[in-house]
Amino acid sequence: MIETTDERLDSLLRHYCGRTAQASFTVREARRKPFKKIALAAAALVLTAAIAWGAWAAVRQRPAPPAEEPYAISAEKLAALCGKGESTAQKIAGKNVGAWTPSIAYADSEKVVFDVASGIFVFNYRDGRLVRTFDTDKLGVPGFQQGDAFSSLLVSEDGNRGLLTSQTADEATGALRQEYRELDLENGSVKKLENSQAFYDRYTVFQTYPVTPEERSELPGWIFGSFAAVAEGSDYLMALDFEQGAGTLASLRLIIMDAETGEIQASVSVFDKVYG
Amino acid sequence: MNSELEKLAQRYSADLTRLCVSLCGNCADAEDLFQETWLKAARHFHRYRADKPFDKWLFTICVNTYKNTLKAAYHRKRRCFRTAEEQDAFFAAIPDAQGEHREEYLALHEAIAVLPKKQRLVIVLCYFKDYSIKDAAQILHIPEGTVKSRMAAAKATLKRRLQND
Question: Which terminal CB of chain B, N or C, has fewer other CB atoms within 10 Å?
């Protein structure tokens, strides 16, 4: 047992985080070389595939698909387009969104799965319908609403299953308890997994956020970058936009835009009233 | 890398190293995060506005990279030291963590490892460079009140764990 006063904890943290830079890393230009090789190999593969595709397309009398271009949306373009096509969706009235970071766990061409302090939501942005809600009571994770317990939400590649990882500290002993809950995003059921090892065995196929940091950094400051996602297999980019007041969130908006042209297809208000 | 960025790299690499090591908890992952951060900084340097502090821009990239690339369960595993040498090298960079204080820092390291990622980010950002609540809120893109509440929760957890260790 270590006697820890507030002052001692401050001192420990200051030394721990303010460590000397004797092990300072240096920027390695050479790091790019392996990538160059990989890029060349990939380019060769793409070229081969393109030739094969071209031959196939000629046989089928179909035009070759356009070359894939990287997403490029400037902040100016977004700002100019902001507000177009706005419509009002079904409200999630009275839900406490809270102030901790919401995030998108999954997005496809129709729906987006995101978590906020009040729970986990499946939102169909095509018709502006809230498909499924997993509020904090339903999840049954102590401390979820305060952001203390929540660790991560993963969603399977088909978007039908979610895995909520949470950890809670026992008040008496301080021992941490890791818990896993399987969410059926189709029928709304929550099942607590008893055997944590089963999680690692069963969920190796879960994907990470589909948006790349480059795409995220293209978003302007008023969109919290980490909430953006690019739907796999589609040309739409989605972002949850939060306008914040004095320490609270005032609204939450889902923006769907053409990732190639930057044109906003729809701007849907998900929450219009949020409590602090 | 252009010459202006090279100068900035020389000036801020030590700070960035500290941030990466404190966030990742081991040197191998920290170096990957460090390199990834600089690669992104170089790629997007044209977007950096010179009238803003460079360190905050750089640390924001670092924090976002950290948030986006490391999954919680995976990261918790990786914070463990694989060898005694790795552990020695990690604590050698903390002058106060030698001798009798080593156990204390080891316990702190383990306690930070199991903090929720959001709380860990706040703790590390506020302590590695004496950033204010406002600075941390800007880098993390969250309200100041959220930084305060996460900080209080993180400290309470750390204290409890250290006392129970």
Answer: N
